[in-house]
Amino acid sequence: MATKLPESEFDARLAEVRGRLADTDADAATFFNATSIEYLSGFHHIQTERPVVLAVTQDGLEVTVPRLEVERVEPNPRIDAVHHYFDYPQGNPIETAAEMLEGMGAESVVSDADGAPGVMGYEGPALSEFVEVESQSWVDRMRWEKTDAEVDLVRESAKWANLAHRYLADYTEVGAHPVTVSQNATTDASRAMLDTLGDRYAVRTRGSGPVHAGYISGSETALPHGHTPNERLSEGDVLITGASANIDGYHSELERTMFVGEPSDEQVHYFELMVEAQDIAIGALGPGQSIAGVDEAVHDYFLEQGIEDTAQHHVGHNIGLGGHEPPYIDRGWDDYDHVDEGDETMAPGQIYTIEPGIYTDEYGYRHSDTIAVTENGTEWLTYFPRDLESNIIR
């Protein structure tokens, strides 16, 4: 049971970044993106108006943080030095980062951004006002393929998502409110996970549970990103569910289309079309397979069935530290600005959500499963039943 990345993962990531840095004329690589900083150093934080800047040289790893993060980052064994400013706007985060770089002997950098992102009202100077800056997106690309250790974490996430989804189904009944059902399933699955894993669980939440389960219902299901309605469940309702768990920052995605009571013939019809579309997509996955081609195969099926107008999004996306990551299973993927040769095809270690949806004027129909691409084919990581009978609430 994998619950935390081994130290060797960070060693390998930093070694790759340093190898890429050696191929440039820059003295350091800098990172402003919170997920990239976590990926390389293991220091995870919430990206706010207070910038955090990580700097990597061939022999050092240093970070600039706001004062409130100092105690959180200092115990990190991979970080050699912590620099801080008091707060924003009274502090000078980019100036502090520039001083850090000067101390590291870095006059030029390759960076994932020319300054901190403008979130939560942050407005600050560009890093290039202080050092020479060239752009890079190394970590974004490195995250596409997961190592065996990362796949293990997503596999563990899928296990707890499955439990949460089972609670969700068990607690659903006519007259229940979707919000309270979701809260109860989330709470009970989180409690079971924490009780089972104990101190092996790597805490990544602030007050919320490590597992989440919920659904949208009724007419909101006709909207791919619908909201939970403020109405109790009725006989004949369609549900689109979702469950996941946070395992050392990694996530899976499990979604099902469920019915409260016996579905109508029309509902069964669209459910079966949706499941067939997902089967087609999953059957097209594998190493060396065209990423755009998977979406094309589903699109062709929808055209054949005369329901192409019910599709509102592509087939799926990569998943890991982020809920949505490239590559995207989209017919336009071949036109994407790829980084490396061969990026148009699937590779072992990529983990995809497969979620073709059908949306009528009344309801939506979508399953989502998390599937890893392996050397020889694929591995299903999520495993809640997909058939009609298993998804009827009686």
UniProtKB/TrEMBL annotation:
<dbReference type="InterPro" id="IPR000994">
    <property type="entry name" value="Pept_M24"/>
</dbReference>
<dbReference type="Pfam" id="PF01321">
    <property type="entry name" value="Creatinase_N"/>
</dbReference>
<dbReference type="InterPro" id="IPR050659">
    <property type="entry name" value="Peptidase_M24B"/>
</dbReference>
<dbReference type="InterPro" id="IPR029149">
    <property type="entry name" value="Creatin/AminoP/Spt16_N"/>
</dbReference>
<dbReference type="InterPro" id="IPR000587">
    <property type="entry name" value="Creatinase_N"/>
</dbReference>
<feature type="domain" description="Creatinase N-terminal">
    <location>
        <begin position="13"/>
        <end position="90"/>
    </location>
</feature>
<dbReference type="InterPro" id="IPR036005">
    <property type="entry name" value="Creatinase/aminopeptidase-like"/>
</dbReference>
<feature type="domain" description="Peptidase M24">
    <location>
        <begin position="153"/>
        <end position="375"/>
    </location>
</feature>
<protein>
    <submittedName>
        <fullName>M24 family metallopeptidase</fullName>
    </submittedName>
</protein>
<dbReference type="Pfam" id="PF00557">
    <property type="entry name" value="Peptidase_M24"/>
</dbReference>
